[in-house]
Amino acid sequence: MALTNAERQRRYREKQLLNNKEEYDKKISIKMKKYYKKLKNEENNDSDEDKEEIIITPLKAIKRRINPLNKSKLSDNTIKIYLRSIKKIYKNYYNKDLEDDTELLNLLTNKAYNLEKLTLQLEFVKKDLIKVIKENYKDIRNLYSVLTRIKKFAKQVKELYPYIEDKQNIYNEKRKNKKINNNVKQKMEVLSFEKEKILEILSNEELHLTDSEKIIFALMTLFPTRRAVDYRKMLITETEPKKENKLKMRDRNNYYYNKKFYFNVTKNRDIQQFDIPDELDKIIKEIINRGELGNKYLLLKEYSASSLSIFIMKTFNKIYGISISAVEIRRLYSTYLKEEVIKGNITEEEHRNICEKMNHSYEENKKYSY
Fold first, then answer.
1. Is the pLDDT of residue 175 over 80?
2. Are residues 196 and 165 part of one domain?
3. Which of 88, 113, 126, 287 makes a 20 to 30 Å CA pair with 354?
């Protein structure tokens, strides 16, 4: 599709900036951060909850809690999120701040805590759970996660679970087959998953792609598009990785070895192993061979989840002149697969196999597409 004059001028300005890489990176990073923040708000399934009154239908408690007392180790970021949610819920109920969060923090860090004091602080949850749910609908998942860790809150856990499940079902319905607006249409027009076009971009020296940009672009397009976090800390190894199915999730790693990907850390906790297409493996090997000696990361360094998301958008913006997030690339690839089935270019069985490589169920993948 031919570029408009405005698009040509924008690309020209960005190419001029490439002569000053520091200035270019600064400009694009600011742009991507703003876009990523906006996208996160749009993708958040609770985005409309502040705009409309939440109607809570009384739901019957489950007879038996799903899991026993939760003692899993939480990340620092998760602890901060849970603390913030509980303090917010407390303030909404009592109209005052929670003055002492020591016992709550001890609970979340698996340290000994004063059950009597913590129970007293959260007594309002036992007394008026429905009111708490109505006034804090956006935070009930976090509340549930915290209550599953406290003794003597089994009744509230069983009462709260149906609302968590209902909330998830509403989210799934909202996410199902999202409509194509002008913004999405523009991205569908520029982004192609045809192998020849991808390889043409990777060999285009005028784009001035760095090795890091080449490898993330290739991973997101030449292999069935997975969640970007699956590559965030993927290690390069010279020996076949040992099975890690008996290790705790926090002790596992994903690996690249001998033309294969080994995925031990995944969202649904599956352990997977897949062969890599020749074209992708060739690109990976070329970049590794000319890279820094001793580098252990496939992406050439370790990224945080947020910095990797921004880097992906920055890379795709550099190539296509439009911001495309990792989530959108995954949606667009799912849409591409559905179209390939309709055109008769791939069979349903092939579609199912590709979904497995994406770490998606076949039904979930169809819902994920536009």
1. no
2. no
3. 287
Tell whether 27 is covered by a domain.
Answer: no
Is 29's pLDDT higher than 60?
Answer: no
Q: Which two tokens stand for residue 57?
A: 């239908």
Q: Which residue has the higher pLDDT, 16 or 238?
A: 238
Classify residue 342 as exposed, middle or buried by CB count within 10 Å of its CB (0-12, 13-18, 19+).
exposed
Q: Which ranges in the chain belong to alpha helices (H)?
A: 5-17, 21-43, 76-94, 102-108, 115-121, 123-127, 129-135, 140-147, 154-175, 182-190, 195-202, 211-221, 229-232, 278-289, 305-320, 326-343, 348-357, 362-368
Tell me the per-residue pLDDT of 56-74, one tens digit each, with 9 for 90 and over: 788 999 998 888 899 888 8
User: Do 226 and 289 reside in the same domain of the chain?
Assistant: yes
For position 329, which CATH number holds? 1.10.443
For residue 15, count CB atoms less than 10 angstroms from its CB and return exposed for 0-12, middle for 13-18, buried for 19 or more. middle
Domain span at 165: 76-175
6 located within any domain: no
Instruction: Give the count of domains, the chain.
Output: 2
Instruction: Determine the Cα–Cα distance for residues 340 and 345; give it in Å rounded to an integer.
Output: 5
Encoded amino acid at 333, one letter: Y
Mean pLDDT of 147-158: 93
| Distance, CA of 346 to CA of 340 (rounded, Å) | 6
Contacts of 258 (CB under 8 A, 6+ apart): 240
Tokens representing 181?
A: 């607006």
For residue range 80-130, list pLDDT tens digits in order.
999 999 999 999 999 999 999 999 999 999 999 999 999 999 999 999 999
Residues 204, 316, single domain; the answer is: yes
**Distance of alpha carbon 211 from alpha carbon 217, whole angstroms:** 10
Side by side, the strands of the sheet bearing 260-263 are 235-236, 255-257, 260-263, 272-275
Helical (H) or strand (E) element with 263:
strand 260-263
